[in-house]
């Protein structure tokens, strides 16, 4: 009888602690996550519009690794960000939206509800981080049709292809110098597949014309605010996991799921 009474008393204490977790600590963590992710979202937006409404610019000096004498300057104007950054920002904003739908006035009734929210937020954050850490593999025709070459001013020569992408905290720009393959060439034409970086000798067909890559130049530069964003993602994912762990701990005190 005494053991049963102690068990009942412990259960009552745990239930009160669990209620406090759902009503107080969960919302404190959600508020902390919102603040961190809003700061991360701000990192992805270039400042726009002064008093005259002109879009501001952000310039990056890219260089070949180990070769300071070879440099290039890339200027982004307004919202001219590469697809990976746009995708990452969209995932961050989706995570913020999920969190804001559970404001301080929302009453969580079960731990399962919190776990589902954390899983949804973590999914968006993982996708955002992956877009910055895993560059897309593209074929040369995909690069040629992407429109990146047309973004440059002054225009690039017709025998040049460019691709730029994000890899962790670096902005990478790859320049491909092309050689037109004449119909009379004796070379065995074999189109290259998708890749992050294509090597000299890679062949492809675009616009009824066959090309071969003759030279490849890769330049890169560190973007400090991308590093900040990755840190924000890591901290946010850790907060989500810690909250999930606290919710899950209570399940070990019950023979049934307390959700």
Keywords:
single chain; 44% helix; disordered C terminus; two-stranded antiparallel ribbon; 22% strand; 4-stranded antiparallel sheet; alpha+beta; 259 residues; disordered N terminus; 5 helices
Task: Please provide a written account of the structure.
The chain is α+β, with helices and mostly antiparallel strands. Helices cover 44% and strands 22% of the residues. It has five helices and six strands, in the order H-E-E-H-H-H-E-E-E-E-H. A four-stranded antiparallel beta sheet has the order 3-4-6-5. A hairpin with a 2-residue loop joins strand 3 and strand 4 (170-180). Helix 1 crosses helix 2 and helix 3 (111-133) packs antiparallel against helix 5 (224-249).
Along the chain, the helix and strand elements come as HEEHHHEEEEH
C-alpha-based Rg, rounded: 26 Å
Number of strands: 6
How much helix is in the residues? Answer: 40-55%
Strand residues, percent: 15-25%
Sheet with most strands: strand arrangement: 3-4-6-5
For the biggest sheet, the summary is: 4 strands, antiparallel
- Overall pLDDT confidence: 82
Number of helices: 5
Overall outline: elongated
Distance between the termini: 28 Å
User: Which structural category do the helix and sheet elements fall into?
Assistant: alpha+beta
Uncertain segments:
1-6, 47-55, 255-259
């Amino acid at each position: 009888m005494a053991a049963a009474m102690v068990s009942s008393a412990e259960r009552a204490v745990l239930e009160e602690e669990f209620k406090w977790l759902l009503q107080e600590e969960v919302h404190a963590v959600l508020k902390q996550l919102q603040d961190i992710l809003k700061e991360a979202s701000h990192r992805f937006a270039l400042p726009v519009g002064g008093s005259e409404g002109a879009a501001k610019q952000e310039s990056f000096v890219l260089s070949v690794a180990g070769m300071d004498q070879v440099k290039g300057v890339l200027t982004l104007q307004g919202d001219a960000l590469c697809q990976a950054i746009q995708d990452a920002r969209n995932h961050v904003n989706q995570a913020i939206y999920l969190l804001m739908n559970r404001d301080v006035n929302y009453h969580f009734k079960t731990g399962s509800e919190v776990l589902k929210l954390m899983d949804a937020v973590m999914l968006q954050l993982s996708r955002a981080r992956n877009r910055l850490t895993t560059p897309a593999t593209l074929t040369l025709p995909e690069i040629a049709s992407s429109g990146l070459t047309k973004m440059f001013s002054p225009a690039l020569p017709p025998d040049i292809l460019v691709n730029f992408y994000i890899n962790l905290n670096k902005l990478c720009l790859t320049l491909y110098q092309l050689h037109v393959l004449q119909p009379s060439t004796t070379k065995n034409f074999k189109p290259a597949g998708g890749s992050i970086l294509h090597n000299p000798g890679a062949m492809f067909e675009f616009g009824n014309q066959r090309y071969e890559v003759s030279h490849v130049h890769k330049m890169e530069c560190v973007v400090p605010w991308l590093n900040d964003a990755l840190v924000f993602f890591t901290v946010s994912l850790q907060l989500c996991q810690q909250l999930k762990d606290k919710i899950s701990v209570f399940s070990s005190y019950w023979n049934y799921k307390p959700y």
